[in-house]
Amino acid sequence: MKFSNIKYLILRRFTQFGLLFLYFAGNFWGWSILQGDISTSMLFNKVPLSDPFALLQIFASGAVVGANVLIGALIISLFYGIIGGRAFCSWVCPVNLITDAAAWLRRKLLIDKIERKLWISRNIRYYMIIIVLITSAISGLAAFEILSPITILNRNIIFGVGSGLGLIAAIFLFDLFVVKNGWCGHICPLGGVYSIIGKYSIFRVKHTSENCTLCMKCKEVCPESQVLHMIGKKSINVNDIECTNCGRCIDVCDDDALEFSIGKYITENKKKESK
Amino acid sequence: MGEKEKKHITPRRRFFTDMAHHIGLGTMGVMLLGGYATKAKSSPLTLRPPAAIPENDFLKTCIKCGLCAEACVNRPQNLTRDGKRKDEFGTLKMAKANDNVTVGTPFFTPRDTPCYMCEDIPCVPACPTEALDITKVTNPKTNELDIRKMDMGVAVVDVHSCIAFWGLQCDACYRACPLLDEAIKLQYNRNSRTGKHAFLEPVVNPDVCTGCGLCEKACVTEKPAIFVLPKDVAQGKVGDHYVKGWDKKDQQRVGDRNEKDITTHDDRSKKKPLDYLNSNQLGL
Question: Helices (DSSP H) in chain B: which residue ranges?
Answer without folding.
Answer: 11-39, 55-61, 67-73, 123-126, 172-176, 214-218, 231-234, 248-253, 267-270, 273-278
